[in-house]
Amino acid sequence: GWMGLMHGISWIVGVNSDAYRAIGRADLSTKIMLLCLLYYIPTYLIAVQYNLEVFLIVRFLVACAAIPIHFFIADKYLGLKWHVVLKELSWMIAAVIFMGLLGYTLSANLIGMDEWQRLLLVVPLAVGLYLIFLFKEWGFLRELINTALSKK
């Protein structure tokens, strides 16, 4: 779960490196990573002394701490404002929060079912809620599905 959260947070700025390459500044991704490594490495070295869960939580928090650095550079070189990005992602963020709350609440309250039964019940319900919540994006989803199904 922590790895999924970490990757989800990281992909908010994941496409920036492609944008930097597009404007001829591929070096920016490397410079950002070098800057982040200044606190990644010591933080990881401390966290690894505990247990895997602590390490994964710290890794998630470190990824969150890198987001402002990415937004600062994206604003400076791409003119990409953080509040615009968050506004565009607000529906998806809300959908993920509701999906996570539904999944957690259901799985915690389904007493008497084994893990596989809970998984087979909770995951489709959570994904269904996520898709329903993203009704605003259905045009995009329809276009994505049509593109995936088209035979070229």
Describe the structure in your own words.
- The chain is mainly alpha-helical and 152 residues long.
- 81% of the residues lie in helices and 0% in strands.
- It is built from seven helices and no strands.
- The protein has helices at 2-10, 16-22, 27-47, 52-78, 82-109, 115-133, 138-149.
- α1 (2-10) runs parallel beside α4 (52-78) and α3 (27-47) packs antiparallel against α4 (52-78).
Topology, please?
Blueprint: H1 2-10, H2 16-22, H3 27-47, H4 52-78, H5 82-109, H6 115-133, H7 138-149
What is the averaged pLDDT score? 84
In N-to-C order, the SSE pattern is HHHHHHH
User: How would you classify the helix and strand content by structural class?
Assistant: mainly alpha
Low-confidence stretches: none
As a whole number of angstroms, the C-alpha radius of gyration is 19 Å
Largest sheet: none
Number of helices: 7
Strand content: under 5%
Helix content: over 70%
Distance between the termini: 37 Å
Number of strands: 0
Note the overall shape.
Answer: flat
Could you give a short description of this structure?
The chain has helices at residues 2-10, 16-22, 27-47, 52-78, 82-109, 115-133, 138-149.
Give descriptors for this structure.
single chain, 7 helices, about 80% helix, mainly alpha, flat, about 150 residues, about 0% strand
